[in-house]
Specification:
The chain is of the alpha/beta class. It contains 10 helices and 10 strands. It is globular and about 55 Å long.
């Protein structure tokens, strides 16, 4: 396993370059299997765990299944000090009787100050911990003033409840403005932004703000100075939930176009030549790029985890990377 440093100009710590996503743990992935995956990840040197307060509420769960399972695992293993915990708030159901969806009406709780305060402390309780290493806003909230949201995250940091803050599923201009607002308030800015990013890319569409655009990556590369504190990208669904290798997994909306098909064909050719799997090549491509990111992997079995862990130390030759990039 390899490691990188994340920070916000005031708080810094190291995390493994592969983050373990736990979205399906406690629901689609049973507890015994989840514990085995977590044990193996820790044994392999993994240190960065990712969850949220709404996970699998769309798949028979109640939203905090993953947090609760992680809390039980941390308690039984006694390894809280060996990992960095990240959770998210703002996209749980505002009205429990209504569905949760990505199109209007979304029914999201949002990022008002009272929601941030309440849900962060609820996450502490469900995880069984006294602080969160990372806390994200799960989705942007255009109905709440940025100053209010940013101030609420800063308050949690001042109380020692949260280490580094972040935002997910957000337009670039909102990231920049939120960070500037934090500096105006004299508090630490977002140090992480979690977006979808993988080897193929979607067609540009108005309103698509969940993609780590090249402009975002360019902005992130410009950070790390006293005037512009560091910012890192965390990439969710980097292997498109298995779509690169499974014919039964359709591509997400916007991804099924000629360039994607050519990129997938080239990806499989490169995988065969490098004796790696397509998933490993995608992760290595993300890890070793001009603007490295931290991929979130979400295996459902220990065998899947072992495959993905193989990408942590995989370095793509420059000519291989050039070939992948050229498509």
């Amino acid at each position: 396993m390899r490691y990188c440093t994340i920070g916000d100009g005031r708080t810094t710590f190291d995390v493994s370059t592969l983050c373990l996503g736990t979205m399906n743990m406690g629901t689609l992935v049973d507890e015994d299997t989840s514990f085995a995956i977590l044990d193996r990840y820790l044994e392999a040197g993994g240190t960065f765990l990712d969850t949220a307060n709404n996970y699998s509420s769309w798949a028979g769960g109640y939203g905090r299944d993953s947090e609760d399972l992680l809390g039980r695992w941390l308690a039984t293993r006694g390894v809280r000090d060996e990992v960095r915990l990240a959770t998210k708030l703002g996209a749980a159901k505002k009205d429990p009787a209504l569905p949760l969806q990505n199109v209007a009406p979304t029914n999201y709780q949002g990022l008002a100050a009272d929601v941030v305060e309440r849900e962060a402390h609820e996450s502490l309780r469900h995880l069984g911990v006294d602080h969160l290493d990372v806390l994200y806003g799960h989705v942007d909230d255009l109905d709440t003033p940025l100053a209010e949201t940013v101030g609420a995250f800063g308050k949690l940091q001042a109380e020692g409840v949260v280490g580094i803050t972040g935002i997910s599923n957000v337009a670039l201009w909102r990231v920049v403005e939120a960070r500037e607002e934090a500096l105006r308030q004299g508090i630490a800015p977002y140090g992480l932004v979690q977006q979808n990013l993988t080897y193929v890319y979607p067609t540009p569409e108005p309103g698509r703000h969940n993609w780590a655009s090249y402009e975002l990556l360019d902005y992130v590369a410009s950070t790390g100075t006293p005037e512009r504190p560091p910012l890192a990208v965390v990439a969710y669904s980097p292997i498109l939930q298995g779509a690169y290798v499974r014919r039964d997994k359709p591509l997400w909306d916007g991804f099924d176009h000629p360039t994607t098909r050519e990129r997938v064909r080239t990806l499989h050719e490169v995988a065969g030549q490098t004796r790696a799997t397509p998933n490993q090549v995608v992760l290595a491509w993300l890890l070793g790029g001009e603007h490295p990111v931290i991929p979130v992997i979400g295996p459902s079995t220990v065998e899947q985890l072992d495959e993905l862990l193989g990408a942590a130390d995989l370095d793509l030759d420059p000519e291989i990377r050039a070939r992948l990039d050229a498509v």
